[in-house]
Design a protein that fits this description.
alpha+beta; GMP Synthetase, Chain A, domain 3; 2 domains; DUF6286; transmembrane
């Protein structure tokens, strides 16, 4: 969702930049050559059309409702795009500490890759769970999985996490892939 909000805000920024440049161009054009037709936007015809409209017209109310609904959707999308930080135990009453899921995943990944018989690992982490996918060329999955599970649980227990996440370890051994 955060990616959606970032892309949307970038697109809105570019649209506003284009609209501003177009407005500056149109104003400059109409000041320099007031008798000529508009540069790109047919604003005199729009002005004539809007001149006969009132705030209580159905078209105006529908347009206002659509814009209000669009604004509400954007507001809800930005509210849902909160950061997914992982809370740590607070060292004091006026201090709150958190870390990112990526930092926790890097820490666990480095720890898992340092273990014997692990040839590679990928880790995804959130506040609720840590998932480790490890590869081994030397040991079978049945031998390596319990050792890695205990090792990751011990590492997480040493960290000042406010809540201990659930740990899942999946091991793929080279002998079992063939």
């Amino acid at each position: 969702m955060r990616l959606f909000v970032r892309l949307l805000s970038g697109l809105f920024g570019l649209a506003l930049l284009g609209l501003g440049a177009l407005t500056v161009g149109e104003v400059g054009w109409s000041w320099a050559w007031p008798q000529r037709a508009p540069l790109l936007v047919p604003w005199p015809s729009w002005l004539r059309y809007l001149d006969g409209r009132h705030w209580s017209d159905t078209e105006t109310l529908v347009a206002a409702g659509v814009l209000a609904a669009l604004g509400l959707v954007l507001l809800l999308a930005s509210a849902a795009a909160k950061t997914r930080d992982i809370r740590l135990r607070d060292p004091g009453t006026a201090v709150s500490v958190s870390t990112s899921p990526r930092a926790l995943a890097r820490l666990v990944g480095r720890h898992v890759r340092a273990q014997d018989a692990v040839s590679g690992a990928s880790v995804t982490a959130s506040a609720k769970k840590v998932k480790v996918k490890a590869r081994s060329r030397l040991e079978s999955a049945g031998q390596l999985r319990p050792r890695l599970l205990d090792s990751v649980r011990e590492l997480l227990a040493e960290l000042p996490l406010a809540r201990q996440p659930r740990v899942t370890v999946v091991v793929t051994a080279a002998r079992e892939r063939r």
